[in-house]
Design a protein that fits this description.
The chain has 401 residues and is of the alpha/beta class. The protein folds into two domains: 142 residues, Aspartate Aminotransferase, domain 1; 248 residues, Type I PLP-dependent aspartate aminotransferase-like (Major domain) (Aspartate Aminotransferase, domain 2). It has 14 helices and twelve strands. The strands form three sheets. A seven-stranded mixed beta sheet has the order 2-8-7-6-5-3-4, with helices on both faces. The chain has a three-stranded antiparallel beta sheet with strand order 9-10-12. The longest helix is centred in the last third of the chain and has 39 residues. The chain is globular and about 65 Å long. The protein starts with a strand and ends with a helix.
Length: 401
């Protein structure tokens, strides 16, 4: 039976070239980077080299890169580390309603610790309301956290414009002798290695990324922290990662992350162009061949590999299960919330009805996706839709009303 993987936004298969680069660091160069003997120092050298390589990729300084376990820990560290560092009684955080749960849940946690949280609305294409952001900022606002691109609908946020608003607030505070810093964090887990990122131009103070989203190994990621910013560690112990994150470094994982970055640097532009063409082809095929199907998210301002559609009258979970029978792996939203029976919080924030939100599927394309795979998907999706609509107690037209 065919097997077609279309869930690259959830995780990517590890590139064979990455696995090859990692192998020596499981057995031959397995040392602890904190050890003083040669085996440990070899591990220390490769971690240093990997940090430098990844830093160059986003035009950062090596000391601005902190290695940790992945995007969720990076998000938690940015938010909680800032909260515990500030001396304000009720620090104010601003984020959006469509952030990953790795942002939303820490925000709910921090509310219980005494923080004030503002969740910004979005428009129907998934773009954050910039006027609402301007109005939400207070003298006690310590962080704005807006993701680079949404993991479910693929919409890319206007980080430059958001950064301009935050910069204006910084200048205003300086003029009024308000010494409370305000920081800008972005969850770039879906864009790192897929879209160009230059932190010298991108106005962010913190940036989260994860290796397994760009064909690297699971269990390793990074948090970029702009030079000069102090942050309270979440994990205390040894003086690893400049004293910001205790725990013996995942040497083989870091090597794999760096190799994935090296490959992305060479292949990213061409791959983005290829995936954009496939993405637009798949969108057109679904919307023209399946009645009452709708694209979710911005049609153009979206990730090169993201296709999120709602097909009226059918639950997304039912379509997913039927497609899996045909060997097609996709998603109804974020993999981190795949056990939830509630409609996607992202689609709900876009004010889609619960029926339409429940009728969504996400197809995320990747390095090994071919046009013939998409043709097979569309062929089987039409069969699935026709069968499920045929046994539905309600007609599609009734679903609309």
């Amino acid at each position: 039976m065919k097997y077609i993987y279309l869930d690259y936004a959830a995780t990517t298969p590890t590139d064979p070239r990455v696995i090859k680069a990692m192998k020596p660091y499981f057995r031959r160069f397995f040392g602890n980077p904190s050890s003083l003997h040669e085996t440990g120092q070899e591990a220390r050298r490769i971690v240093k080299k990997s940090r430098e390589q990844i830093a160059r990729f986003i035009n950062a300084e090596p000391e601005e890169i902190i290695f940790l376990s992945g995007g969720s820990e990076a998000d938690n560290m940015a938010l909680k580390g800032t909260f515990y560092q500030t001396n304000i009684n009720t620090p104010h955080f601003i984020t959006s309603k469509i952030e990953h749960h790795a942002i939303l849940e820490p925000c709910h946690f921090l509310e219980k610790q005494g923080a004030e949280i503002t969740f910004l609305p979005i428009d129907k294409s998934g773009i954050v309301d910039l006027d609402a952001l301007k109005k939400s900022i207070k003298n006690t606002t310590v962080m704005v956290s807006i993701m680079h691109a949404n993991n479910e609908i693929g919409t890319i946020q206007p980080l430059e414009k958001i950064g301009e608003i935050i910069q204006q607030e910084k200048e205003k505070r300086k003029k009024n002798n308000i010494d409370t810093p305000i920081y800008f964090h972005t969850d770039a887990v879906q864009t790192f290695g897929h879209l160009p990122i230059n932190v010298k131009n991108l106005p962010v103070d913190f940036l989260s990324a994860s290796s397994h989203k760009l064909y690297g190994p699971k269990g390793v990621g990074l948090l970029y922290i702009r030079k000069g910013i102090k942050i309270e560690p979440l994990i205390h112990g040894g003086e690893h990662e400049q004293g910001r994150r205790a725990s013996t470094e995942n040497v083989s994982g870091i090597v794999g992350f760096a190799k994935a970055v090296e490959l992305a640097e060479k292949e990213m532009a061409q791959e983005a162009e290829r995936l954009t063409e496939l993405r637009d082809y798949l969108i057109a095929e679904i919307l023209t061949k399946i009645e009452k199907s709708h694209l979710n998210g911005d049609a153009k301002n979206r990730l090169p590999n993201n296709v999120n559609v709602s097909i009226e009258g059918i639950e997304g979970e039912s379509m997913l299960i039927e497609l899996d029978y045909f060997g097609i792996a996709c998603s109804t939203g974020s993999a981190c919330s795949s056990e939830e029976l509630k409609p996607s919080h992202v689609l709900s924030a876009m004010e889609l009805s619960p029926e339409i939100a429940h009728a969504s599927l996400r197809f995320s394309l990747g390095k090994w996706t071919k046009k013939k795979d998409l043709d097979y998907l569309v062929e089987k999706l039409i069969l699935v839709v026709n069968r499920l609509r045929g046994i539905s107690p309600l007609k599609v037209s009734e679903k609309i009303n």
